[in-house]
Each structure stands twice: as C-alpha cells, then as structure tokens.
Amino acid sequence: MATVSPQETDSAPFDQPWTYTLRLPNDPRAARIARVTLRAVLSGHGMAELAETAELLTSELVTNAIRHSDGPAQLRLRHLCENRLRVSIWDSNPLIPAPFDAPPGRLDRLTALTEAAAKVDDTHGRGLLIVRLCADNWGGYPLADDLFGISGKLLWFELAPLRDAFDIAA
Fold this sequence. Notes:
By secondary structure, the protein is α+β, with helices and mostly antiparallel strands. The protein is built from five helices and five strands; from the N terminus they run βααββααββα. A five-stranded antiparallel beta sheet has the order 1-2-3-5-4, with helices on one face. A hairpin with an 8-residue loop joins β4 and β5 (152-159).
C-alpha cells in the first residue's frame, strides 16, 4: 500500500517533497517487490540515477528485516532537499545491529573498507557493510511501544545525486 501526501498530485511541481510507504509481508519475495517499487518511484520523480545503488541497499535492508524478524516490514521512500533520497526499513525486531546502533564516525568508510577486505570470501553477512560503503549517510534507532503499538527498529540510509566536476569546482 503506497501513501502519498496531499500536496503530491499530478499537477504538483517535481521539486515538492514526497513520501511513499509500502508494507511488506515476511516473505522471501519482499526484497524483489521493494526493488521494483523503488525503481518505479525514482523513475517517476526523475531520480533514476540513484536507482541502482538504492535498489542494492534497499534489497540488503529488506532481506535483513525479513530474515531477522517474525513479522512484516515496512519500506519508506522519502525525498529530501537537494534531491537526496532517504530509504527507511522498519521491522518488529528491536535489536539494532552494530554499527547501526550509533551514528557513523568520521572514519567509518575506512573501517568499512578494512572489514570488506577481511570478508572478501564471505558469501553472507555483508549486507550492512555494503550499506556503510555505498550510502552517503546511514543509521538506525529503536522504536518503543507507543500509542499505536509500533515497536521494533528502523534502519535507514541516504543517497545524494552525483555532482558534475564543474558543479564541485564552482
């Protein structure tokens, strides 16, 4: 089920913020469905350049959510300023895996590269490492029981469009 905010109509300008939410059952097909939905949303909003990386990272987080929780998961796609994309995955398992339980440090990408080199022959257990290597920003936080009974955790990542060399020099 996708939800769209009221300002998101066919006549709305492309630079308006938007959010899409998709509830995913605890099913091995959920990652593929999340990728297809993500690609359609990014294409529809002129952000197709982010699709390949966003699909990979979304697939990793959805797969972890389905594998490590008993209930459904929820995918949230959100447009941020300067054409940044935030992808969030909620699941019912409250355990936040390290290092998503703390904000990324200044040297996290270097640490992640070192870990990747050590795990070069591993065939599983690298999903969060891939997110750390490819995302512009990432994190996680617990969701305590609230009025609506939502608990568990939320893991997220952000991607920004690549800038041209001319944009960076200016």
